[in-house]
Amino acid sequence: MLESHSSATDFYLIGFPGSPELRHILFATFFFFYSVTVMGNMVIIVIVCVDKRLQSPMYFFLGHLSVLEILITSVAVPLMLWGLLLPGMQAMSLTACSAQLYLYLSLGTSELVLIGAMAVDRYVAVCNPLRYNIIMDSHTCIWVVIVSWVFGFLFQIWPVYATFQLTFCKSNVIDHFLCDRGQLLKLSCDDSLFTEFILFLMAIFIIVGSLIPTIISYTYIISTILKIPSTSGRRKAFSTCASHFTFVVIGYGTCLFLYVKPKQTQALEYNRVVSLMVLVVTPFLNPFIFTLRNDKFIEAFRDVMKRCSLLSTPQGLAVS
């Protein structure tokens, strides 16, 4: 316990309490998830960059989404894995804690904005295909990505600043595997009710605000698809949106459960599980959701693998 008028300069993360055997099992599980996440999303980024058939707005956005997924999971998971190998609690400085929270929230905000933009992209592709290349030209796509990144990092400056203006004098032990804002508010000895309310409104703004264009876009998309007379035409139109729609349901669902609640300090175990969904499960699923049923991507992947295998042979090396 800290002195009544002193604020913590270091924090200690409890992480995942349990026996060493349990922690080793969790380490192996999360390490597997993290490795697949990084490799899978890196494959998407490389294939999108090198294959000309994937030079379209949808895959351009998907490449940036994969970059965000790698960064989001890398903000917390490597530190969490290291903590599972330590016998006790994991120390973290105030600066490291604030940096982790800022990057986590900023990258998450950028991802939500980008997901909303991807929904609008699918709307234009399905509902206005003749003007798709005119509306979603390279200039527009680049600006959409720039705005999503810049907005995410600017939007979260005040929430993180306000959080660390509080005095943490109740304790310096965070019962979580990352520097969680809800736990920080719980450790504060200041009256944080107003701050919590403002943070709640800002979470509502970014999540619901980016969800509205997604809902509107898919309302028009479904309406347009249902008007297509042939079954094969409806199936083809829906296949262009199915992967993004699946990711929307998973991504927005976990974010709504995690952030849009009036009391940031409630339900510790609930927060830990949903945080794992955001940081581990969703980035892990991203490569599978967007590629397993995408024939165009699979074909591009096979062609790139063939070129790589040819270059690795003595004949290929001689030609190169």
From TrEMBL:
PANTHER family: OLFACTORY RECEPTOR, OLFACTORY RECEPTOR 6C76. The gene is LOC109269129. GO terms for molecular function: G protein-coupled receptor activity; olfactory receptor activity. One of its GO terms (cellular component) is plasma membrane. It comes from Panthera pardus. This is Olfactory receptor. It is a multi-pass membrane protein. It is found in: Cell membrane. The chain crosses the membrane at residues 25-50, 59-81, 101-120, 141-161, 197-221, 242-260, 272-292. Residues 40-290 form the G-protein coupled receptors family 1 profile domain. Coiled coil: none annotated.
